Amino acid sequence: IGTTMKYLIAAAFAAVLGGSTISSAGEVLDIHGSGTTNPSKCIWMLMDQFMDRTKEPVRLTYRAVGSSTGQKEFLGVNNTGTNAYVPHNDFGSGDIPVSSSNYKAFTDAGKEMVHLPFVLGAISIFHNIPGVPDGPSGLNLTSCVLSQIFKREIKFWDDDRVLEMNPNLKKALPYDDYPITVSRRVHGSSSTASVTQYLHTACPSEWPSSLVGKTIDWPEGSEECEGSGGMTKCLKEIPGAIGYIDAGHGHSEGLKEIELQNVHGTYLSSRRAAEKGGIGAAAAAIPDSADADFGSVDLLNKPGEFTWPIVAMSYIYARKDLSFMETPEQQSLLVAFLKNLYDPKAIEQCSIFGFTRVPNSVRKIALEGIEMLQVDPAAPEWTVEEDTIPGEGQGTYVISHKRRSYAEYQRYSQESDLEKAMAKIAELEAKISGEAAAPANTATFASPATYTDNDAQKLTAALALGAISFTLWCIAGLAFVAKRMCGV
Q1: Rounded CA gap, 34 and 160, in Å?
Q2: Taking a C-beta distance cutoff of 8 angstroms, is the pair 244, 312 a contact?
Q3: Contact, 85 vs 74, CB < 8 A?
């Protein structure tokens, strides 16, 4: 959470102190994408850096609207007649591949596309049971018990089926028959698709195929939560809630993650799986060409001692023929941005949001897919300057790592101080959570009826954490006021 907060705080400074890209000599070159919310922070960060490093005025935007909307706006399937399959975006993104049926309809209409996998991320389950911590000393669940909870067959946290794998849970609950609130997404969501497909794959006897999809008919009594932000709000504000969200988002928001049993029988969190290489381990074989049908790609419930069972691969969807874009410069700009997603130095920054870059074998297929994109012969080639190239580095279509905006300089020059503050926050959070490396099935929870000196220390730490967060936001607020008063 500390590193993510660092970037978000830095971004707040950039929004206050920085300015928009305005062309004084010509048109602004713009690229607009839309799709999944899960790696949205990753995409926004890389776009910001890309805009800072170009000599030509460019503007890149990304609307985090969900995988289903991203696919719809990319495919343009709601256009008919002569406008059939006209896109609403320059590229789409999603945590699920375009389905085989949609891919066939698209190609049958004479269109061609590529899937470009760029990061792997875990979808995980989080809870808000008072008195039950995050980590190994927290809540253990199997796929079958989780299925029964999501179907509302298990409605209380002290149900015998839950207590069987959490023998010390009952005494931690505020009272007997403590209710479970199932939080779930409202609109079509790749997270819903991944979680429901996982439950059916791992426990088909409890989760039928009729309950698999981006949208399903949830049992009565579940809580509707719109988007990742809405899911976060549901999990934070409803005691006893349980729900699903991409792990990076959940960790950055300080949500409490369950320990989920994988195929090997290991109870583990997505955080521990990532530390053991268990996210990349789930990457199954994919088609050997980016323009093939990816509809059957599945990274769920894969074997391995530390393999996380709900892994999503995030894709960029791009059309082979880029002539729908207004200018040749925009066409090659999109190609340059897509190539940047496979620069190890660039994409590895997204680890702060809980993502893992794709294996080299997948990266190779994606880069070959980018080479399939058809641009106007008049389109300029964008090049990259990492080490200083006298003269050529000042070229019009050079993306230079030596070129930075003052806003970028300011936000990253604060890195040392922010790292110290985040380290302090992490120290305080560790004290608050009181995590212990206890065996998963012998966890003990503090009695809610007992207030000890340790509890007092945790309360003090919580207050200090709040003070640090408040101070950091005050700094950003003062910078905004100063900007307005000075007319900057």
Answers
A1: 44
A2: no
A3: no
- Cα separation, 302 vs 88, whole angstroms: 36
3-state secondary structure of 22: coil
Contact call for residues 119 and 39 (beta carbons, < 8 A)? yes
Whether 136 and 440 have beta carbons less than 8 Å apart is answered as yes
Structure tokens at 373: 């994109």
What integer pLDDT is reported at residue 446 of this predicted model?
44
The label of the residue with tokens 């990816």 reads 294
What is the spatial distance between Cα 344 and Cα 126, in angstroms, rounded to a whole number?
30
Query: What pLDDT does 195 receive?
Result: 96
Please say whether the beta carbons of 231 and 128 come within 8 A. Answer: no
Residue reference for tokens 């905004």 = 480
**Euclidean distance between CA atoms 425 and 464, whole angstroms:** 9
Read off the DSSP letter of residue 234.
Answer: H
Question: Which amino acid, one-letter code, is at 387?
Answer: D
Closest of 479, 457, 248 to residue 354, by C-alpha: 248
Answer yes or no: are the C-beta atoms of 30 and 60 closer than 8 Å. Answer: yes
pLDDT at 303: 93
Write out residues in the chain with pLDDT < 50, as ranges: 1, 3, 6-7, 9-25, 435-444, 446-452, 483, 487-488
pLDDT value of residue 476: 56
The region, left, alpha or beta by phi > 0 then psi within -120 to 50, assigned to residue 354 is left
Q: Are 308 and 282 in contact (CB under 8 A)?
A: yes
Q: Is 291 exposed, middle or buried (0-12, 13-18, 19+ CB in 10 A)?
A: middle
Rounded-to-integer distance, Cα 160 and Cα 154, Å: 9
